[in-house]
Amino acid sequence: MTHADLVKIAGRWLRNTAGCSVVLEELCAATGNGENPDAIGWYCASTLLVECKVSRSDFLADRKKRFRAQPELGLGAYRYFMAPKGLLRVDELPERWGLLEVAGRRVHVAAGYRPRSYGCGEWAFPERYTIGEFQMLLSAMQRIKVRVGAAEFHSMLHQRLMRPVVDPRAARESQAAAWDVFSDSPQEASDASN
Description:
The protein has helices spanning 3-16, 56-62, 66-69, 130-148, 150-161, 168-193, and strands at 22-25, 39-43, 46-52, 78-84, 97-103, 106-111. By secondary structure, the chain is an alpha/beta fold.
């Protein structure tokens, strides 16, 4: 299994299992702290970071990074290492880090926060470098703007994304009222003819 394979699996896990609405894989961005995660996803107001490791030496070298030694400088409210099953042990993980083990196409949460569950405070990193997370999102948006063109990007933002959201209940009430008008009319016509 290659690093690229694990990154794809991490992105899929963040989108499908964790339910992240936005997922970035191997985005190189100027985050201010020097961290460029293999995969990061946004779920509601939280971020989930996944670092993929295919060798023990890569895992051990990761500890020397400044944002690992000082967790408040790192990205991700929840942080995981993803590795082939058996490569890493739970007891050697940094404090509050989870472990995602991969066997084939299956991902098992060996340790850490289980997405979409309650009682996750013990795994969270409330003190983190949130500015870097915003910088990653802005970098991704800027790349979309360059790729599709400024005019199309602004059109997407202002005409499509910024439309007022219609409450489906109001739409149903409006439709029901319209049907009531039609259903009353035949009755009134019948009453008038008698």
